[in-house]
Structure formats: C-alpha cells, structure tokens
Design a protein that fits this description.
410 residues, alpha+beta, Phenylalanyl-tRNA Synthetase, Chain B, domain 1, BirA Bifunctional Protein, domain 2, Alpha-Beta Plaits, 4-stranded antiparallel sheet, 10 helices, 18 strands, 27% helix, elongated
Length: 410
Amino acid sequence: EITVAGDARAEQKRIEFPASELERLAGLNADPQEVRRVLGSLGFSVAGQDPKLEIAVPSWRPDIEGKADIVEEIVRILGVDRIPSIPFDRGESPRKPVLTQGQVRTRRAKRALAARGLVEAVTWSFTDKESAELFGGGGLALANPISAELTDMRPSLVPGLLAAAQHNADRGFGDVGLFEVGQIFKGDQPQDQLTAAAAVRRGKSKSFGTGRHWSDHDGAADAFDVKADALAVLAAAGAPMGAIQVVPGGPPWYHPGRSGTLQIGPHVLGHFGEIHPRALDALDAEGPAAAFELILERIPEPKPKPTRAKPPLELSPFQPIERDFAFVVDRGVRAADLVRAAQSADKKLITDVTVFDVYEGEGIAPGKKSIAIAVKLQAREKTLTDAEIDAVATKIVDEVGKRTGGVLRA
C-alpha cells in the first residue's frame, strides 16, 4: 500500500521580464550582466537573452508575483541612490501660487504674533449665549450643542482667549499673552464667516517679557501694547500702513477711554483696547486684560508686483534734516490728523513725521493742547539750503493750520 504524505511540489513560477522594464518602472538603466548577477545572488534563475529574459522564482519567495516585484528586488540591491533625479517639465507658463492670499495672511499673522512673545491658543468655535450677546453676536444657536456652555457660534475670538487666560491664571500663570487666528461668525450666510486675528495680554505680559522685574516700571499690559500687536499683524499682512487711521473708542466690551479703532477711511479693520471691567465680570475673569481683534478679509489686497525679488536699496548720499514743531490745537483734534497734515506739505522731501510730546496745562489756554512733532527731510538730488528748508517749514505750518486750525506754540 502506498501512503502519500504532503502535497506535490508546486511547479516553479517563471516570469517573462523585458530588459526595458527596469528603466520604465524605476528610471534605472543598469547593465544586463549586472542585473543577472543581482538576481542570481538572490536565488533567481535567469535564462534567455536580451531584450527579454525568463526568470525562475525560487520556492522561498512566494511574495514575487510579477515584473514589478523583480524591478523592486533589483533596485533594492543596486541602491535607490543610483536612480537619476530628473525634474518635471514646468512648461513655459508661470507657476500659480500654491497658497491663497487668505492662507498667506493667516500664516504671516501667526508668525508676527509669535515673534512678539505671544503663545498660540486654539479655543472653541462655540460659546455660551450670554458671551455671544455680550460680544456683538447672538442668534446663531446650535440645534444640537455639545454642552450647555457651548450653545452659540462665537462672534469674536476675544471671549475664548479671555477664558483661556483666566484658566492659566487660576493655575498660577497670571502674566500670560495668548493669540489665535481663526473663524468668527456674524451670521448664517457664507459671507458672514470671517477670519480674525486676535490676542489677549493679561497682567504683566509685555512684548519684551512677562512677570515682575526690578527694571520694569510700566506695570500691566495696556492698550498701547495690544495696539502694537495689531499694527504688527497689519504690517505682516501687507496693509498700507501709511493709510491706517486710529480713531478713539471701540465696541462696548472695551474700556471707553482706553480703546481705539483701526480703519482705512470708512472701512474698519479692527479694534484694540483694555477690556471693560463689566465684560470681565460677565466672563467671570479677572483683570487687568487688554486685547485686539482684526478681520483679515478687510485688509486691502496689496498691489501685484512684477517680481518677488526685493527692490534695490536706495540710500540718499545727503544728510537728513530734522525739524521740531509744536502746535497749539483744540483738545478734540487728533494727533494723527496733525501728522497727516504735516506729511502732505511736501511728500517728496518729508520722509517721516512722529509725535514726541502732548501737553496740556500751564501756559496753554483752556480747551487747548500742544502737540509737538519731529519732521525728517531727506533730499535725494542735492543738499538743501537754508532757504529751501525754511520754505518747507512754512508749508508745514500753513498746511497744519488749514487742516487742523493749529498755530505754532510761542
């Protein structure tokens, strides 16, 4: 009687392998003798002649199914570094940018705020109904909220950042600066979903550091700190900085005497200031705290440039000249209006105007104030004579008087 144990030996698998397959699949051009040597060292039997080989697969390699597996074995032994690097043909037409303008602005805003010492936070896109109504929202209630405290879509990033700052303060980190760039919701239409950049500074969170220090005389973060943060975001986003106006006042959740609005003409870009104590109480948060919030979509699109290269640096070989002026104006006149009036006197020669003093008191009539400015003149063609400098100074005085009613302080 014959007893059969096990299965009959399977027939050896054979694969027809064109010599051109290695270059077609892997881009590797190898010598046929080198291919035979590699396959032989791995246990494959190679028969036939170029351009078509017949390869017998060893019994211990059931993973080899086809020509692509043979190519993989050859490349694995010869080395991937032998495959030449061939760039794709880009064509004649210029490449389109990968990121949209909104994505570029979002990244630049985050980088600018991180560079000013703020830490990025990602807060809920939802908030409670009371906070939504307090910060200018309400009416966007969720049909199926995830909790009783997150019932509405957020109309602002500020309440979430204030809650996160308070959460840190409750755990001993009171001097904290947080920022977020994310979506806010003003309505239920697509155009009502906006991208905002906001930051909150609590306690002694400054751009140069946080906490108490023996050399620190500035105290807690204030409206000027968050104003500088907001201007840094606008500059990084490509806003026309010379056209930005700062108007006193802001939404009701800011302190009325310590807040401002950033705008270009009638178009409001955002707000900044110290948070009103009533708003802090409503959020069960402790102060002092200052914040800003900008809408990135409202920033004007920058003018297209013919090239991404930076323009050449042009420095004047002539010495700049600075002149100081002090004007007496009505108390209600804004310093920014006076600065713009001085700049418009001669846009070619006047390169910078800064305010260095505001004074009210003895020697100034009631209802008036003194604003002192420094004006820099930079000639590019020749050295200015005394007569030319005096002529520009006269233009400045006349323009300021015409636009603001200011007169030179005696």
